Amino acid sequence: MIASFSTLLPPGLLLIAGAILLPLVPARLSGAYMLMLPVLGFLQLLALPAEASVTIELFGLTLELLRVDRLSLLFGYIFHIAAFLSIIYALGIRDTMQRVAALIYAGAAIAALFAGDLVTLFVYWELTAISSVFLIWASRNERAYRAGMRYLVIQVGSGVILFVGLLLHYNETGSIEFDHLGLSSMGTALIFAAFGIKCAFPLMHNWLQDAYPEATVTGTVFLSAFTTKLAVYTLARGFAGTEMLIWIGALMAAFPIFYAVIENDLRRVLAYSLNNQLGFMVVGIGVGTELALNGTAAHAFAHILYKALLFMSVGAVLLRTGTAKGSELGGLYKSMPLTAAFCIVGAASISAFPLFSGFVSKSLIMSATVDNGYLWVWLVLLFASAGVVEHAGIKVPYFAFFGPDNGTRVAEAPRSMLIAMGLTAFLCIAIGVYPAPLYLILPYATDYDPYTVTHVVTQLQLLLLAILGVAVLMRTGLYPHEQRAINLDFDWIYRKAAPIAISTMVAVAAPVDAGFRRGVISRFNRLVDGLFRHHGPRGILARTWPTGSMVLWVAILLASYLIIYYL
């Protein structure tokens, strides 16, 4: 029965349908009801036949609503796990709008993974954008409203670009199949750009740091899991082996480090580190070998967990203290010891300490990069790895829990949040200690062993050097102090510079425009006056002429006609 059910219903629709019915569920049962949805969805994935496919005919197009392979299954597994953990974390939140939006968002992202054509992908692509913005607006303040609007414009805009690219691609090839596309035409270039916006490519990345920190405590955990990883999946599906992605990814991995170091808001620091980790995945897609794509998939899997764990721990701090600014925190390990411990697990995972999940996933990408001769890119990734140790591995837990004690004493995080953080931390360690189950579900078969002497020693040296560097900088007072400040990033261009430029242009152009309008109106009035003077009731052409004069003019016209005729 489960098999027939799974082949008829594309994954993700179960969560979407469940979200629509959620307001009808009694409040005391709503938590269990929400948890049941990703569990059933996960069971559905397990029951899916290998390479299953469901197609329908619509408007003359063949839409493949369900296409199953190892790549989509791996992302499907981790999306369901992320939804389940995020729901546990959010059980204490009784906001129906947030709950419905989160379920639809997760369901749409999962459904997009199994879309076999670009039209179906576009539908779910836009649904993720529209549903997720409510997780930002649920903060119900002016900053969140404005950030949500900017987020919505950019996300829907990426959908519009995707749609135009789809039309051009269909017009050129007659196909809407979503498989390897490559940068072969204007249509596929636009599709690539749409994926890049959602993946937060450099100069397209600020929606991430702008919107995620303004979402609710629980909303940020959902957001960190799905949007960017859906983009990683689509890039891996459509543009694997595109060399440009190697350089884009290297830049993505490196530049956020500098912003994360000086940023005071710890949720914004995590948003920058999210950008940094996406860079590793994009490099893997660009390299495009089986090992590299395995690395991208494995790193996406591990990253969803440890980044969610970090957002959960900082979110719990925000919930209890009302702030996530490093300059206003410190000493919280005394009040929130469990949350601090979970945060350290997340920090160790993202820093790729051996025996934690980041180590076994990032190693695949690093090995693929150096194996294929991209030495400079490997060095950039090495630098980025050291940077992430500093800002996410040390800075976040230190300033949240172990910095100078400002005397703040709060209660430990709510029980549901602790359970979610505990389960996520367990998975981070389990994957790090025993990566074989993760490697078993990767897109390509592999016998990769991350625990070689070379890998472990190299990584330990890197970690020790990074920690030593931070210690020296702090000791000598050269490390940037946590303080309230506005850090200029590229979004300054469209948030501040563009409005100022437009206002200036309007101010300069307004007198010219007014003079031009006055000139045109003046000429028009003179024209009307002239016509009125000649053709008005008292105009010369409107006068009553004597019969004799009329006969005279007719005779003159006839004579003129005869003369011209005979000439």
First and last CA, distance: 102 Å
Q: How much helical structure, as a percent, in the residues?
A: over 70%
Largest sheet: 2 strands, antiparallel
Low-pLDDT ranges: none
Output the structural class: mainly alpha
Going across the major beta sheet, what is the strand order? 1-2
Beta-strand percent range: under 5%
Tally of DSSP helical segments = 22
Mean pLDDT: 90
As a whole number of angstroms, the C-alpha radius of gyration is 31 Å
SSE string: HHHEEHHHHHHHHHHHHHHHHHHH
Number of strands: 2
What general outline do the C-alpha atoms trace? elongated
Explain what this protein looks like in three dimensions.
By secondary structure, this protein is an all-alpha fold. The chain is about 70% helix and about 0% strand. The chain has 22 helices and two strands. A two-stranded antiparallel sheet has the order 1-2. A hairpin with a 2-residue loop joins strand 1 (about 55-60) and strand 2 (about 60-65). Helix 11 packs antiparallel against helix 13 (about 265-285). The longest helix has about 45 residues, at about 490-535. It is elongated and about 120 Å long. The mean pLDDT is about 90.
Spell out the key features of this protein.
single chain, 567 residues, mainly alpha, two-stranded antiparallel sheet, 72% helix
